[in-house]
Amino acid sequence: MNTVKTATVAILTALSIGTNYALSSVYNVKPMDLFTFVGGVLFGPAAGALVGVLSWSVYGVLNPYGFVPQIWVATMFSEGIYGVAGGLLNRVKVDFGRHSFAHMVFLANLGFLLTLAYDVLTNIAYAQVFGTSILVAFVLGAPFTLTHEISNTLLFGMCTIPLISAVQVMGVGNIAKVRE
Fold first, then answer.
1. Which of the four pLDDT bands, split at 50, 70 and 90, describes residue 98?
2. Between residues 73 and 178, which one has the greater pLDDT?
3. Which has the closest alpha carbon to 12: 45, 47, 46, 44?
4. Beta strands in 20-170 (DSSP E)
5. Is 42 helix (H, G, I), strand (E, B) or coil?
6. 120 vs 114: CA distance, rounded Å
7. What are phi and psi of 25, to 5 degrees?
8. Which of 80, 114, 150, 165 is the Cys-Cys partner for 49 at CB 3.0 to 4.6 Å?
9. What angle do the packed helices 134-167 and 32-43 form, to 10 degrees?
10. b/e code 67-96 from CB counts within 10 Å (16+ = b)
């Protein structure tokens, strides 16, 4: 990794951790997933996944809700889904320079689907760790899952393109140049 890429991954990771602590009293409304996704868009799937893994490796150990090693590992690696998806989306040449309603709807739907996958995986991990059925885990987790999916749908739809634009204005350059 070059220095710009390393610094931006570190900044996105720090933003993820900091905003998670700042919003710790608001259950499952966290911009961490968005920051991980944007890391993938800017630098590719591996760097995006790295933002997610590093973010959860710190936040998960010092989690205000407690530390459960198996849940920590599940959330740490499930977070990488967002970074990988962002990197793959960049590879298919989606134009992030345009902020149209269609782009917002597309990104909102993508955020919802990625969050659904994340929540399914982490609810399965919860069921395994606490020896309950997967159905019980989904029922008990439904309010948290719903909040997570709604908030990420809104965050991805409204904030992805402005965040990418802001990072580029700060000197990272355009997406094509950064990934070279």
1. low
2. 73
3. 47
4. none
5. helix
6. 10
7. -85, -5
8. 80
9. 50
10. ebeebbebbbebbbbbbbbbbebbeeebeb
Which tokens hold the place of 57?
């490796």
**DSSP assignment letter at 160:** H
Place of tokens 């602590």: 21
Q: Which residue in this structure is represented by tokens 């966290």?
A: 30
Tell whether the model's pLDDT for residue 177 goes beyond 90.
no
- What confidence tens digit (pLDDT) does each residue in 27-67 have? 899 999 999 999 999 999 999 999 999 999 999 999 888 89
| Nearest Cα residue to 38 out of 5, 86, 97 | 86
Enumerate domains of the chain plus CATH numbers: 3-178 (1.10.1760.20)
pTM: 0.90
